[in-house]
Amino acid sequence: MHDSGLRSPRTLKDIAATGLPEELSGKTGSNRDYEFEPLIVAQTDCQAIDAWLAESPEGSATRRAYEKEVQRLYAWALAYPGKPISSLNRSDLMDYERFMSAPPPHWCAPRYVRRSCAEWRPFEGPASAGTRGQAFRVLKAFFTYLVGVHYLVRNPLGTLDTKKTDSSRPSRPLRYIPQATLAHLLLVLEDECTRLKGVDPATHLEMERMLMVIRVLSNTGLRRTELAAARMGDLYSDRDTVTQAEYWFLAIERKERNSEVVAFNPTARAALFRCLRGYGVNPYDVDPRMPLVPKLGYYGPTVDASAQSTDQTIYNIVQKALSVGAKALEKANPDDAYVLSRATPQWFRRTYVTLMMGIGQPLPLINRQLRHASIDTTAGFVRAENYELYRAAARLEI
């Protein structure tokens, strides 16, 4: 190995802004596919990386995780073997795994240093076996994508088994919130809403918003980025022509795709309408531009009620709700408090799956609701299928 003079590891943004010598750009990489026309517009590794990252929702936790791993690999490839990503072979990647186990000090920085800061480095210290395994699962998916779109000929990680096989370690507990624990959390939040009403208007509204966010995430399986982006105008009702029942759905916009449909069950809708009434807003006469999770002032939504919420806003709301629940349950229900103290917003998506399977709903319908990459869910699906999805989701009352 050798250091090519890139003593400070570079971010993808850095690389894109300053450019690279032709031999490191990937244009002439030894693993490039020149036989077929690429399915993406990419001449360089940077452009190919951008195309891959664009497949994940902007601002999502998945996209951030993917960017972190490919950014680490790219910085290492340029500095050590002195190769573009499109020239890396299996041996290079095994060298990279060893490097992750013991990165030099000038490649490490404290956690949470932003990429825009000069102090940023790709690593926080030696990567554990679990961290390396997760990194290589991401990188294997990355190379699989590049081969699939005819940017690369071969996947250098194609035969690597990235499954967890260390049977000497206890299996990792599932990261979801059990139904009883979730019910206790909701009771705590409801009690706090009752206690604060008429006593502390600002804190009461904040607590009402926490309760609504937890209920909506638990009853819909929405990603927090999707909840942050959702506006009242995205929520609509439809009537089943057979049963005459009214069903509610949330349309989620996707770049370069049609809208996707999520069943917004009665419990989620009731939670949202309760919160709106707490703000002093009529749920049936609301500005369609208003976010489902608006920014709050002292007496309700801020003057600019259309101001977009952010992924971080939802994250903070959920973490605070979990903290309130954990603190309240610490003495009476220490097991529940422990679960809530460890939980993160992502757990609610897994919790939704667990709860839906617990009431006997088929996995294909659950996948429809979650809109995983394996299901091509759009607003163009047959309405009867949407009704079936809604009837399934409506059985969940938590």
Which helices and strands occur, and which strands form pairs?
Layout: H1 12-18, H2 22-25, H3 45-53, H4 61-79, H5 90-101, H6 129-148, H7 179-196, H8 201-220, H9 224-229, E1 235-239, E2 246-254, E3 257-263, H10 266-279, H11 311-329, H12 334-342, H13 347-358, H14 363-370, H15 383-394
Antiparallel strand pairs: 1-2, 2-3
Helix pairs in contact: 4-6, 7-8, 7-11, 7-12, 8-10, 8-11, 8-13, 11-12, 14-15
How does this model look, in words?
- This protein is mainly alpha-helical and 398 residues long.
- Helices cover 47% and strands 5% of the residues.
- It contains 15 helices and 3 strands.
- The protein has a 3-stranded antiparallel β-sheet with strand order 1-2-3.
- Strand 2 and strand 3 form a beta hairpin.
Features:
single chain; 398 residues; mainly alpha; hpI Integrase, Chain A; 2 domains; 3-stranded antiparallel beta sheet; 15 helices; 3 strands; 47% helix; 5% strand; disordered N terminus
Strand and helix order: HHHHHHHHHEEEHHHHHH
Radius of gyration: 24 Å
Oligomer kind:
single chain
Low-confidence stretches: 1-7, 164-172, 374-385
- Structural class, by secondary structure, is mainly alpha
What is the helix fraction of residues, given as a range?
40-55%
CATH architecture of the largest domain: Orthogonal Bundle
Number of strands: 3
Q: How confident is the prediction overall: mean pLDDT?
A: 82
Strand content: 5-15%
CATH superfamily annotation of the largest domain:
Intergrase catalytic core
Per the CATH scheme, the topology name of the largest domain is hpI Integrase, Chain A
Tally of separate domains: 2
The level-1 CATH class of the largest domain = Mainly Alpha
Number of helices: 15
Biggest sheet, in brief? 3 strands, antiparallel
Q: Measure the end-to-end span.
A: 56 Å
